[in-house]
Amino acid sequence: MKKRLLSIMLVAAMVGVMVMGCSQKADNGDSGDASDSGDSDLITVGYAQVGAESDWRTANTESFKSTFTKENGYELIFDDAQQKQENQIKAIRSFIQQGVDYIVVAPVVETGWETVLEEAKAEGIPVILSDRQMDVSDESLYECWVGGNFIKEGEDGGHWLEDYLKEKGMDGEEINMVTLQGTIGASAQVGRTEGFANVLAENDNWNMLELQTGEFTQAKGQEVMESFLKKYDDIDVVIAENDNMAFGAIDAIKAAGKTCGPDGDITIISFDAVKAAFDAMIAGDLNCAVECNPLHGPRVAEIIQKLEAGEEVDKIQYVDEELFDTSMDLEEIVKTRAY
Ligand code: GYE
User: Fold this and answer.
1) pLDDT digits (tens, 9 = 90+) for 71-110
2) Is 271 in the pocket of ligand 1 (CB under 6 A)?
């Protein structure tokens, strides 16, 4: 009975919003908001998520969904943009129309956001960036950003390779490598490529044969690796800009009759360090995983609580990250991992 009444009210509210037109904004989400199912003191948060392209992304979505619950005082409107910026822009516009209290964006790519951010600003809706960054001329268009230090991650991967080759007595040898890049223009791709390139520039014997995008997905990572293996018969190292592309690369390498990992023909370095990457290292297929922490839900909630209390927040907030390789006790470490 209560539920039915609520849905009648919801439908009525939705019709009301449609009749009122698009530009109407509810009072700071406190009433009559299409997304707010009647709980007037909930903070409404619209999250424009990238997609569901990787294990990292799944963990990130889960982190938001389990943090922004009604019990915790939030109404979450979640949108999966299927890795398309145009879908994210549409989602942000819809959040604005619904009069949310906060907009959170994990931007697919870095550029092209000014117009929609200005629309949010005009309605007085704070925008928080999480995971990937935006490249905008006016930084007042967003409150702050929280995520991984992608350039450092790339450099850490490069330094790991320097040490590894030294240990194997291979420093100074000609080393041929390929890179499976993430979505071109995504800050995780831009930063990791740049960070690794910084170390590459210091090693004259490293030869980057080719870089190509695998769109952060396992299927595309496998496809690109297959084409690399057909083109080059002397690949020593694969840099996969996320774990899922590394998993695709491992399949491609095995299908081509080659081996990878610490005892194999090809060394693989990946980024994220999700649980399946630990499994791949334990299985001896993957050498090293540079951590990128996806658990941003509680971090963004903390930012929102500070903003609600009128406190200042740091504009750029990097998350601490580690690196894991097969020299470690991975079986023990993986037990302590949350993703
Ligand atoms: O590495 C990848 C995901 O932006 C850090 O996006 C994130 C990246 C992550 O698809 O797996």
Assistant:
1) 999 999 999 999 999 999 999 999 999 999 999 999 999 9
2) yes
In DSSP terms, 172 is beta-bridged to none
| Distance of CA 58 from the midpoint of ligand 1 (Å) | 10
**Any atom of ligand 1 within 6 Å of the Cβ of 132:** yes
Tokens 């095995």 — which residue?
254
Residue of 57, 60, 134 to mutate, ligand 1, most atoms within 8 A of C-beta: 57
- CB burial string 75-100: b at 16+ within 10 A, e below: bbbebbbebebebbbebbebbbbbbb
55 lines ligand 1 (CB under 6 A): no
DSSP at 320: P
Span 2-30, pLDDT tens digits: 444 444 444 444 444 343 333 333 333 33
Q: Is the CB of 56 under 6 A from ligand 1?
A: yes
Give residue limits of the domains in the chain: 39-147+294-308, 150-292+324-336
What is the pTM (predicted TM-score) of this model?
0.89
Q: What is the CATH number of domain 39-147+294-308?
A: 3.40.50.2300
